[in-house]
Amino acid sequence: MSKRDLKKYLAALNKTQLEEQILELYEKFAVVKTYYDFVFNPKEESLLQESKLKISNEYYPQKTSGKPRRPKMRRSVAQKYIKHFIVLGVDPFIIGDFMLYSIEIAQTFSANRVIKPELFFKSMFNSFEQAVIFMIANGILEEFKPRILAINNETIQQNWFNKVEFSAIIERFEY
Predict the structure, then answer these.
(1) What is the pLDDT of residue 157?
(2) Closest CA to 86 of 148, 142, 44
(3) Model pTM above 0.70
(4) Which long-range contacts (CB under 8 A, 24 or more apart) does 39-46 make?
(5) Over the stretch 18-54, which tens digit does the pLDDT of each residue have?
């Protein structure tokens, strides 16, 4: 069904029928429920704190039954939250903060441990590039510039193999 057909269909319904359809969607589909729950009660700050906790657990997992757990270091967890935030229409400043936080926590982790897989560093670069592009597109780059520069400096200090690629992104927006 095209958007135009949907508009025609909805225009033909009366108010009660529209309400019934929306309630039915709300009950049947979790994404619709999540969307309306967020629209009517946007607890962006608690959502941000909850997601930051999940990301920190990716690198510094809590001990369970006395046994230490291995860090999973999955970029996909952060990406899921970012996508979810964008779909919900969360404030770009909160999304930008979370994007940088996920890179910063990974850098804190890598500063204390030797990480061999190149995939980790490549995925952090992809996250960094995505964050900068997002911030430019939303006109919020200047507010986050100190943190972006700090991330770049940390890649140099930790001698990441792709530190030149990080610096290249910085050079693009500084000139």
Answers:
(1) 96
(2) 44
(3) yes
(4) 42/90, 44/90, 44/91, 44/94, 45/94
(5) 999 989 988 999 888 888 887 887 888 888 899 999 9
